[in-house]
Amino acid sequence: MLNYAAFLNGSLGLVYLGLGFWIVGEKLSEENNILPLHGWLMVLLQGFTWFFLGLAVRFKRHQLPHIAGLRLCSVLAFFIAGFHCVTSFWEAIVGDAVSFKMILDVMSFPGAILLMFCTFSGPKYAGADSETDGAAFYAPLPGEGGSGGDKINSDASLPPFEKAGLISRLSFWWLNSLMKKGKQKTLEDKDIPQLRREDRAEMCYLMFMEQQNKQKKQSSDSPSILSTILLWQRKQILISGFFALMKVLTLSTGPLFLRAFILVAEGKEAFKYEGFALTGGLFVTKCLESLSERQWFFRTRLIGLQVRSFLSAAIYQKQLKLSNPAKGLYSPAQIVSFVTIDAYKIGEYPYWFHQIWSTCLQLCLALLIIYYSVGLATIAALFVVILTVVANSPVGRLQHKYQKMLMGTQDKRLKAFTEALTNMKILKLYAWETHFKNVIERLRKEEFKWLLSVLSQKGYIVILFWSSPIVVSAVTFWTCYFLGTTLSASNVFTFMASLSIAQESIRLIPDVISAFIEAKVSLDRIAKFLDAPELQNKHVRKMGDGKQLEESIFIKSSRISWEDNSTRATLRNINLVVKPGEKVAICGEVGSGKSTLLAALLGEVPHVDGIVRVYGKIAYVSQTAWIPTGTIQENILFGSAMDPYRYGEAIEKCALMKDLEMLPFGDLTEIGERGVNLSGGQKQRVQLARALYQDADVYLLDDPFSAVDAHTATNLFNEYVMGALSIKTVILVTHQVDFLPAFDSVLLMSEGEILQAATYDQLMHSSQEFQDLVNAHNAMVGSERQPEHDSTQKSKIRKGEIQKIYTEKQLRETSGEQLIKKEERETGDTGLKPYLQYLKYSKGFLYFFLSTVSHVIFIVGQLVQNYWLAANVQNFSVSRLKLIAVYTGIGLSLSLFSSLRSFFVVLLGLGASQSIFSTLLSSFFRAPMSFYDSTPLGRILSRVSSDLSVVDLDVAFKFSFAVGAAINTYASFGVLAILAWELVFVILPTIYLSILIQRYYLAAGKELMRINGTTKSFVASHLAESIAGAMTIRAFGKEDRHFSKNLDFIDINASPFFYSFTANEWLIQRLEILCAIVLSSSALALTLLHTSASKSGRCFSSQIYYCFSLVYTAQLHLNLLVCLNIPNYQFSKMKSQIHSATSTI
């Protein structure tokens, strides 16, 4: 890239210098004078500037210590070259000659663009400057390893985007290998390349935190998330903004080219070969427009991906630190929705960010061209545009209110849904499915009320902005009539072309407003969650310094409470000292504070008046077992390295050997979510094995024997507590008083206080409360013989036998299927299946037919309106009054049909959304437990949260717009065939090639979309599991490991999304280049055929509209595939899985 820039700009500099010296020589030979100076001196200055800038780019790493100076020069050079390029084009179009200097000025603009690329993005892409991409503060997470950086930086493992050069990046050529592979075979997860390091969730999180820390140092106030994101992404925002500016400027030249072609058709050529010059200029302009728009959308999508990845990581990290009072405010379903819905909506907003100012700029430029065409009548057009925006202001405020209420009711519905799914076994055992289904349906009705308001407001906005261009044109023509402005073919077609630009901008405003409102509501929700109180438990744990400790646990506190303003503390007057190696039992009646005492030792209780200290590594076994999805081996290791002897001993001490022999895959058997395919006792023993394998210093056991039978409990106590943990500090909460004589100390608790702390015998002699507790237990279960604690009776197992057992398990045949099945996805071309599935719900075909008919009438009306204007603008037998009156009457009827279309689209969306939800809800409550055993909760929540949200808000409108754009394309083609049949021979090959390109794309593009949909559930499932087991994760100090695992899941989902939207840009860029070729060749053909001005104007306008409709149809079709194909398929696939599970019973 540097060589390209140096060569091009250096060559331009030499040519400019040669031209300057040639001008000086000519002036001296002809006039014997070099005055005036500005002519040749400016050329020489341009030559020296481009030549030395080329040299600077070539040798900047060695000779320029201040890169900022070169960047400033490149920006100035870009604006100067752009000014010269535009003025040269203008002189060539309206002037009467083309000079060599004009050609040089036009060529200097691409050189300036290339120069700016080199100075702003060259070092980062080349990978030479590590400081530009955050490597200066990159630190691998625990468990990542030190070799990861070498692996990432090795050229063989670099993703294709990172290895691509400038031309490859601009043309998306680097994606060809993936597209070719998708054409040859069905893409799988392993075929998708990894992301660049700066696009991965870990780097995004680190760079955001680095930026936030910088802001905190500069200001005492806490920086907002939005300001930090803007500062973090400011460079990429500016670069994408530059491409947005280029797109707007190149798009605005369309009406000028149209006017110039009409003048050529009228015989008013500025110079002999003006038609050829205009054709070449039009082709270059359209190519630049395509390049700039594709880079604009690609880079903003990439910004959104990085922001989404950061937010997902930040939400996960926050839930690991969330305090218990804050957990009461945010349910697990709500936290999952922050990632699956809100983070995704915010990630989509950067795509629309530049539309805010670029739409305004595009409108202003269109109005300037309109002023050039119709003069003071532009004021009327401007007035209508301003009135439209002002009228939208209260609608926008209502939209924000309704969106906020919709998200709130959605959270309530997801909370109830999560509770029902989590406790589905209890609901089925008690036959409570109908009741809970009715509860969720009532919540859905409340949500549906706000959904109706949101979609209705969306429909109103669409009507307002789709009718606005019609009103603008009518008002402008009436103003021309009253002002006496002459209407000719050139100014009318220029005005209509400019109006089409304004129309595109105006029609984008509803989408921009909707995206802004949704992103703002979501950002406010996430920001509030990230500001929630966190646990302050750093003071509790103290690691040993290698010296012999006098105490393992020390508590001296007058008050320990879960709530700050509670009148009665949970624990009071707690004084406890436990020495290393001591065994302490805690007993007492239910609700006496035993579990709270363990929670205080873990730092989970927020309000502690006094001192709580725990020295050494902690292992914790909760009262309710937390078993994350994975194999038994993964649950026991819990991120630690495999030690066969220690692993075998943990299995043997926890009496898991026989259980593993019965399982189909032994310890490699996958445990369902929450350990659904294990009994309560098995889950507790897996927990005990996990704690034992960690080889901690302090063991906190919260009644682990309550879920096992008496014989197993006795065996576990002897082998585990008194054997394996013989030299460890143990705090055991238990109701089984038979084990108490073996402990060094027994704590008797009642009503939040430690009544007495002594040995078993001392308590039996001195405490009536303890005697009552023991007698009550004996009366319930009967007197049993005290367990023997002789260490000689403990069964032993030799190290060789343990190694043999482990080896046998590793070599076990893995035949059959695991419980947790991989999420299925459809492959190949589904044709019309997703669309038909969507339309079959709740009179969908009827509403779709009515909306399509309304749109067809709207398109026909537009064609009639334009034909009336074009046919009679030069027909002086038709008065101006009649011309404009008929034009206005047709426009008013078009507004009516536009309103009908929006009305039917809203009905289509509401009916389909409600029917899909009802069908899915019934399927869930009819599903057998085998379905829930094999389907992670996060996968189901992903369907009923993010996917259902897409169906609720997006599918109907995008479906309608995609069909409408396709109708526009065919209508434009029909008009061209009627007006100039010769052009059919140019356009038919275009249609054929576009179909081939789209088929080539769809082979890979659809698979990327489907993989993106299935991998999204990984993030949701892992987040839901981590929320349930946050206390256990913190107790073992495994926050970094689980955070790193979450980052991996985020990247697994982000990678197909990145290549999916890149493939979209790959397709659209090729269609746009194809359209540019057709448009340029057709314009040249019309010029050579010497068609009339009116016919030439209509044909050229129809070609522009045809090309725009073709590309716009492809864009909307791709958006529709994202919105419709994934969730609609996932719903049907999930229902088929439910049906399959039901049929096996």
UniProtKB/TrEMBL annotation:
<feature type="transmembrane region" description="Helical">
    <location>
        <begin position="69"/>
        <end position="90"/>
    </location>
</feature>
<dbReference type="InterPro" id="IPR011527">
    <property type="entry name" value="ABC1_TM_dom"/>
</dbReference>
<feature type="transmembrane region" description="Helical">
    <location>
        <begin position="845"/>
        <end position="869"/>
    </location>
</feature>
<dbReference type="InterPro" id="IPR044726">
    <property type="entry name" value="ABCC_6TM_D2"/>
</dbReference>
<feature type="transmembrane region" description="Helical">
    <location>
        <begin position="1071"/>
        <end position="1091"/>
    </location>
</feature>
<dbReference type="InterPro" id="IPR017871">
    <property type="entry name" value="ABC_transporter-like_CS"/>
</dbReference>
<protein>
    <recommendedName>
        <fullName>ABC-type xenobiotic transporter</fullName>
        <ecNumber>7.6.2.2</ecNumber>
    </recommendedName>
</protein>
<keyword id="KW-0547">Nucleotide-binding</keyword>
<dbReference type="InterPro" id="IPR036640">
    <property type="entry name" value="ABC1_TM_sf"/>
</dbReference>
<feature type="transmembrane region" description="Helical">
    <location>
        <begin position="973"/>
        <end position="997"/>
    </location>
</feature>
<feature type="domain" description="ABC transmembrane type-1">
    <location>
        <begin position="856"/>
        <end position="1089"/>
    </location>
</feature>
<dbReference type="InterPro" id="IPR056228">
    <property type="entry name" value="ABCC10-like_N"/>
</dbReference>
<keyword id="KW-0813">Transport</keyword>
<feature type="transmembrane region" description="Helical">
    <location>
        <begin position="37"/>
        <end position="57"/>
    </location>
</feature>
<keyword id="KW-1278">Translocase</keyword>
<dbReference type="InterPro" id="IPR044746">
    <property type="entry name" value="ABCC_6TM_D1"/>
</dbReference>
<keyword id="KW-1133">Transmembrane helix</keyword>
<dbReference type="InterPro" id="IPR003439">
    <property type="entry name" value="ABC_transporter-like_ATP-bd"/>
</dbReference>
<dbReference type="GO" id="GO:0016020">
    <property type="term" value="C:membrane"/>
</dbReference>
<keyword id="KW-0067">ATP-binding</keyword>
<dbReference type="GO" id="GO:0005524">
    <property type="term" value="F:ATP binding"/>
</dbReference>
<dbReference type="Pfam" id="PF00005">
    <property type="entry name" value="ABC_tran"/>
</dbReference>
<feature type="transmembrane region" description="Helical">
    <location>
        <begin position="459"/>
        <end position="484"/>
    </location>
</feature>
<feature type="transmembrane region" description="Helical">
    <location>
        <begin position="881"/>
        <end position="897"/>
    </location>
</feature>
<dbReference type="Pfam" id="PF00664">
    <property type="entry name" value="ABC_membrane"/>
</dbReference>
<feature type="domain" description="ABC transporter">
    <location>
        <begin position="555"/>
        <end position="776"/>
    </location>
</feature>
<feature type="transmembrane region" description="Helical">
    <location>
        <begin position="369"/>
        <end position="391"/>
    </location>
</feature>
<feature type="domain" description="ABC transmembrane type-1">
    <location>
        <begin position="238"/>
        <end position="518"/>
    </location>
</feature>
<feature type="transmembrane region" description="Helical">
    <location>
        <begin position="903"/>
        <end position="927"/>
    </location>
</feature>
<comment type="similarity">
    <text>Belongs to the ABC transporter superfamily. ABCC family. Conjugate transporter (TC 3.A.1.208) subfamily.</text>
</comment>
<keyword id="KW-0812">Transmembrane</keyword>
<dbReference type="GO" id="GO:0008559">
    <property type="term" value="F:ABC-type xenobiotic transporter activity"/>
</dbReference>
<dbReference type="InterPro" id="IPR027417">
    <property type="entry name" value="P-loop_NTPase"/>
</dbReference>
<feature type="transmembrane region" description="Helical">
    <location>
        <begin position="7"/>
        <end position="25"/>
    </location>
</feature>
<feature type="transmembrane region" description="Helical">
    <location>
        <begin position="102"/>
        <end position="120"/>
    </location>
</feature>
<keyword id="KW-0677">Repeat</keyword>
<dbReference type="InterPro" id="IPR050173">
    <property type="entry name" value="ABC_transporter_C-like"/>
</dbReference>
<dbReference type="Pfam" id="PF24358">
    <property type="entry name" value="ABCC10_N"/>
</dbReference>
<dbReference type="InterPro" id="IPR003593">
    <property type="entry name" value="AAA+_ATPase"/>
</dbReference>
<feature type="transmembrane region" description="Helical">
    <location>
        <begin position="1103"/>
        <end position="1126"/>
    </location>
</feature>
<dbReference type="GO" id="GO:0016887">
    <property type="term" value="F:ATP hydrolysis activity"/>
</dbReference>
<keyword id="KW-0472">Membrane</keyword>
